[in-house]
Amino acid sequence: DGDGSLEAEEIQRALKLLGIDRDLEMLVEELDTSNDGVVSFDEFLAWWRKNIMEARCVVTTSAKAWKSIVTNVNPPMNFGPLVLLKVTFTFCRSCRAFEPKWRKYSDQYKNIRFVELVGNGTVGAMEFCTKELGVKASPAFFVFRRGTDGGQQVMSWTGASVEKFESNLNYCIEQEAEQQASCDA
Description:
Blueprint: E1 5-6, H1 8-17, H2 24-31, E2 39-40, H3 41-53, E3 57-60, H4 63-70, E4 82-88, H5 93-108, E5 113-118, H6 123-132, E6 140-145, E7 152-158, H7 162-184
Parallel strand pairs: 3-5, 4-5
Antiparallel strand pairs: 1-2, 4-6, 6-7
């Protein structure tokens, strides 16, 4: 309505469209940094930059949100061309057990955008995971190189093995560095 403030319900609906499901009360508490009971556009924008654009890990339930990340050839600052997608399911114990390691790795591999897609979060996410990505076990990991054409899948693997995770991710980083070096030459 042009008054410079956002209704909490509007924000919640908009975030839900992006696959971000947040409790309304907690969302307002988090967004209203001035504690005046109103969420200004500036407060929302600051929250968006910190929690979405610059976040080390992004969680989504939307295949569309995932595609917007991997097709963004101008990523937020400090992120390179590689994006790591982790597909999880709410019922997956090994996915939950791997979560602390996932967060730790996102801090370790700062040049890579870490995205978690909850495969059973929406019908669209489920179809994307099973039909397009061919996920049969979880957690499933996919490394993509950003691109306007939907990104190029570089590697994929399944399972919560730390050794496999580190080995595969390091290999992808080495391959990307070699490709960049050959392009620069």
